[in-house]
Predict the 3D structure of the following.
Amino acid sequence: MSALLGPLDQDGRVPAPQQTRIAAFLMSAHGAQARQLAATLPHHLLQPWQLELHAQYCREMEILSLLTRATSWVPDPALAFMIWRWEAAWMPRPMQGAADYFHGLLVDMAALGHAIHAGIRPAALLPEGVAAMDPFVLAMRRIEFESGRLLQAQILFLKGPQLVDVRDQVSAAVERRHAQVRELWTLMLDGLNVGAE
Amino acid sequence: MPWLERNSRRIHYELTGPGDGPACVLVNGLTQYVKLWMPFRDGLVAKGFRVASYDMLGQGQSDKPRLFIDQADQVAVLGDLIDELGPGPIFVGGISFGGVIALRYAIEHPNKIAGLVPMSSFAEIPPQLMRLGNAMRTALILGGTTYLQDLLFPMNFSNAWLEAKSDLIGLATHRGWLINDVYALQNLMESFLEFEPLTPQLSLIKVPTMIMTGEYDFLTPRTLQDSLRIHIPDSALVIIPRAYHAFTLERAELAAYVMARFAEDVIAGRWHGKKTIWVAPEEVGGELTPFPAGFDHLRSIPVRLETPERAVLSEPASP
């Protein structure tokens, strides 16, 4: 098992089946984020933090659009089962110990966002010699870079003063989501004969 | 690959050198990882020392807590590693951020180590360092690990080194990007948000202490290390010539030679810090010389020029 994507084709591109599987996973994860953000956003923005949510929503949509257009898609029958499993994993699981159900949901949403933005590093899988200007390669680098910025909203919320009293529960919720995302990401890569470590 | 465990977190460390030698523990700077100690470590091993280096929580191959890293946990991890080494003299050297952790350990455990070597380190965060730290945190958030590294390279190294190693810098940046995670570096930086100055506690450090500083370090300038010298009772300040912040990389052999000499002097009972100030030799094997009497060691002037040409070159281009 290789630690990186490939072997590359003669033009230095990642094989289309690998592109398809990785892009499908990222679209499922970032799509879940976009859906949750859309459901949280009011029609009229009234609070400063809602502007940040709106920005997050737009960036998630950009990632989805980018993946749709930059990936060399090929048919992959296994995706049907995989996507079902991924989507089930992203279902909200309100954090226990929150002030109320809604806050528990918000923490879980942020925890999942933290895990997706911090835990998935697709650009780290690109091997030496990859075609630097290939759209899929550029998309992977852009998604990883943007994830570092998107992460800031989750960090601000999860480390914020409003959650100090439940810090241990918040940390546990974040760890749980990280473990879940990591397991699914690793399993998907195993299927491509790529080791995440 | 050896691991330590603390509160279900795994700490990656490496142990090199003769099993029965006196030990040195090396504590990383912010973006450092174990492999970056190699030339420094090899210099100590060649002198007969057993050397332990490790990735702190949030660094390299060690576990990376997702939201919070407490500096007290970093001190506890260092303590675990020191305990792992068993009896015999143990010297602790830490650079920059790692120097702070080493200082805190020595304050809390005055009798557990034989000697302390803070390098490019600090016990306070004055406005310049605070603003630099904030700017680096913003750089990390907006530009990622690579942008932070781009900022750090010219602070850490000389022009000569950057020129000579230009072909390796891209590779080093890539490795640093691979092994570091934005959220983990951010957690490490934010562990300073509630930092309380250590200066009032420095007098509790009872062990021989050699403070090392790069001649041209402007990230953590000499005043910060001099404050350590003034407040740590059995200390001396050693200036590494022509060095910037990361002299354990740029002048690794020389820095290791100076640390080894310190440890040998302590073990032989020859060390007398007396809050003195020294200049390290230019090369390995040379002698340390006392800072010239009658000159202010915190100023950059006056400087005795060697040749008239140098004097001409050093004149400002315009009044």
In short: Residues 90 and 114 of chain B are 5 Å apart (CA to CA). Residues 309-319 of chain B have pLDDT under 50 and may be disordered. The radius of gyration of chain B is 19 Å. The domain at 3-290 of chain B is CATH 3.40.50.1820 (Rossmann fold).
